[in-house]
Design brief:
It contains five helices and eight strands; from the N terminus they run E-H-E-H-E-E-E-E-H-E-H-E-H. By secondary structure, it is an alpha/beta fold. The strands form two sheets. It has a six-stranded mixed beta sheet, with helices on both faces. The chain has a two-stranded antiparallel ribbon with strand order 5-6. The two termini are 12 Å apart.
Amino acid sequence: MSKTLYIGFKGQNNSSAALVNSLAGQHVLLTNSFTGLRRDIDGLSAEYDRICLFGADKSLTDSFRIEQCAEKDGVRLATELDTADISKRLAEAGIKSVISDTPTQYLCNEAYWCLLEKYRGRAVLIHIPTMRNCNNMLEKTQGQAPLGFL
């Protein structure tokens, strides 16, 4: 049986924390700093088969964005997970999504890169809307394990 870990970022008004906390299954919230998130990720067990990282993006209003890769110091790492299947499963749950192959910036990219490196590609980053735009989507995920996509 595969083990999935759901990861969001700390913060009372952070939509990724709210989503991760609403999902059934194991989850962790990362510190909102470069050194803190690296320490948090280094402390994670290697026992997980899949990692699903959620990050908030204020440019999203009614859909999720599935990130295929992260880049750090000119090195690009890509997910080994099936992003097309994840997108399909999100659609079945009533959530629109797009797949991006352009690395993001800042904390989400850093966390994703570290997770891809540690778990050898068995991680995916999914950007979701901020709390302002995310409440209806969060209602769809309440108690679901694991949102039907991993």
